[in-house]
Design goal:
By secondary structure, the protein is an alpha+beta fold. The strands form 6 sheets. The protein has a 5-stranded antiparallel sheet with strand order 14-15-13-16-17. A 5-stranded antiparallel sheet has the order 19-20-18-21-22, covered by helices on one side. The radius of gyration is 30 Å and the shape is elongated. It is 26% helix and 31% strand. Helix 5 packs across helix 6, helix 5 packs across helix 9 and helix 8 runs antiparallel to helix 9.
């Protein structure tokens, strides 16, 4: 008896592979609704998700099982052959999508590596390419009868939602950061096996549940839940499903008040009897800990001109650890310094090929989440300071999407305008002039510095202007108007400068003086005594130290820029 199954054309590129699983084949695996099929499917997806997400990062969407059958021709009769689809992001360009050969070799390398403690054994020699198409998936199926039928199966359009919750009272360990570790695999399997049946029963459009990562505090669980886009449930329904399940799950803790969906808390109508957990955990009578709602953002960039090697696919390898550590130590200080109230975590998740694509998860407190442009602008500006690895600023994406940046080192200064001719009139910009003064200790004052037309005055004036103006122009692109060295006076050399800002977007006193504090760490052509800085004759309190590192100084430049851009 032949059967033909046809569904909607797929919206995303899909690669088809087959592999022999070291699992005895039983007749029940012919039935997609049987417990045996569902259990083996869940085990396959858990392991393969880890492999492909680690290998392809943000390009990877999901994998799915087309069917199981006896592995008659390729290995022992008792084994089970799985045919799987591997789906990639629909908005990927053709050159970004990995070839089927690359997908197959990624799977071969992962299952061949003895250090990967996967719960499922896969015969690496059995892995084969079934279909080269990236649109329609057509395969020949042998049902339980001896009649071969055309079984056309395609992928429905899906919506991916990031579900996050905290497990209070549980201890986070560093091996939960490693997707191939036993701790990660065991916890991911526990969460998936506990929650997936609940979502499958509660929400008919549910497709799959994938544990993505864990982070510290006690343990924060980050999960991708997929739904058919034609009937995706609303945020409250998705969140309430987890809340309702919390009271029945004992294998791990669920703080129902910590639940976020795509980083946002969602008002719930679930009764208070089901929401037993709270965000406050009493440790002892004098110590109370409150959970912070966290939003994870996936930041991706390409390091052009660098060579990808296969060991970058393996988180436990020296190559992965070294590159991960280098990126984290270089970039995390920027984000930590610029977003001190919202930055939570910085995790290098995976690398993939082309030259090297770097996939990073950055956690922010939901209550003070920076916007997309601010997050990507940090990386844009950091690229100017970092030499240990390459950052292709045109390749930067956030959660898979490109983000327009307003960061520019060549922003034109604002100008005042007047009547040009009788028929063309524009309105002048209101300008506020601030007098900035600082002392250059150890430098010798000479009387010709009192004379604006002297060579000494012109040379020093030009030196100060060319050194400091770019800082103010870059940090305050919408408000900076002018930078004029007005005069010098004795003691060693005191420098008096007028800086003009548009009144409508005037930075505050601390922001103006902090730029000079920060510049002091970069400038060697003249001295800046940061304790001598005044604005309009008054000292301005600043927490910026003169003796700060390049990265910290750069981060504070970014902070000032961000503050000014929000006015």
């Amino acid at each position: 008896m032949s059967t033909t199954v046809t569904t909607t054309a797929p919206p995303s590129p899909v690669k088809i592979l087959s592999a022999s699983l070291e699992v005895p084949f039983v007749a029940e695996l012919n039935d997609r609704e049987s417990p045996q099929f569902k259990n083996l499917e869940a085990e396959v997806l858990l392991v393969f998700d880890v492999i492909f997400r680690r290998g392809f990062g943000v390009l990877y969407v999901r994998c799915f099982v087309l069917f199981f059958r006896p592995a008659v021709l390729r290995t022992r009769m008792s084994n089970t052959e799985a045919e799987i689809g591997v789906e990639f992001a629909r908005n990927s360009s053709a050159d970004q999508i990995p070839t089927t050969d690359t997908v197959a070799s990624t799977l071969v390398e992962a299952v061949s590596n003895s250090s990967n403690n996967f719960s499922l054994s896969v015969d690496s020699t059995s892995i084969m390419i079934v279909d080269q198409n990236t649109t329609t998936i057509t395969t020949s199926v042998t049902p339980t009868s001896n009649t071969t039928s055309a079984n056309t199966t395609t992928v429905a359009a899906v919506i991916l939602r990031r579900l996050t919750f905290r497990s209070p009272g549980e201890t986070f360990t560093s091996d939960l950061l490693n997707q191939s570790s036993a701790a990660f695999i065991n916890r991911a399997s526990l969460i998936k096996s506990s929650l997936e049946p609940i979502y499958r029963d509660a929400l008919p459009s549910f497709i799959s549940l994938t544990v993505i990562s864990f982070s510290n505090g006690s343990v924060i669980n980050n999960i991708d839940v997929q739904f058919a886009s034609a009937s995706v449930p609303n945020n409250t329904q998705i969140r309430n499903t987890l809340i309702s399940a919390a009271s029945n799950i004992t294998a791990f803790n669920i703080d129902t008040n910590s639940i976020t969906l795509d980083g946002e808390s969602t008002t719930t109508s679930a009764s208070s009897s089901t929401a037993a957990a709270t965000t406050t955990t009493t440790v002892n009578p004098s110590t109370t800990t409150t959970a912070t709602a966290v939003r994870i953002r996936r930041l991706t960039f390409r390091s052009s001109g660098e060579t990808f090697t296969s060991d970058l696919l393996i988180p436990s390898s020296a190559a992965f650890r070294n590159r991960s550590s280098l990126i984290k130590s270089s970039l995390e200080p920027f984000y930590r310094a610029v977003f001190p109230s919202s930055f939570i975590s910085f995790t290098v998740v995976s690398f993939s090929e082309g030259s090297v694509i770097n996939n990073i998860d950055i956690g922010f407190a939901t209550a003070s989440l920076p916007n997309n442009t601010q997050i990507t602008n940090i990386l844009n500006i950091a690229a100017s300071f970092i030499t240990a690895f390459n950052i292709d600023t045109n390749s930067i994406t956030l959660d898979g999407e490109s983000t327009t940046t307003s960061a520019s080192s060549s922003t034109a200064a604002a100008t005042t305008t007047t009547t040009v001719n009788p028929s063309t009139t524009t309105t002048a910009t209101a300008v506020r002039i601030r007098r900035l003064t600082f002392r250059s200790p150890g430098e010798t004052f000479t009387s010709d510095l009192l004379i604006p037309s002297s060579a000494a005055f012109r040379n020093r004036s030009s030196l100060i202007k060319s050194s400091l103006e770019p800082f103010y122009r870059a940090v305050f692109p919408s408000s900076f108007i002018s930078f004029t060295v007005v005069s010098f006076s004795e003691g060693s050399v005191i420098n008096n400068i007028d800086i003009g800002f548009a009144t409508a977007s005037l930075p505050n006193n601390t922001q103006i003086t902090n730029i000079l504090n920060i510049a002091a760490s970069f400038i060697t052509a003249f001295n800046i005594d940061t304790n001598s800085i005044t604005l309009d004759g008054a000292n301005v309190s600043s927490g910026v130290s003169h003796n700060i590192s390049l990265i910290t100084a750069s981060s504070l430049v970014l902070l000032s820029w961000l503050l000014s851009s929000q006015q």
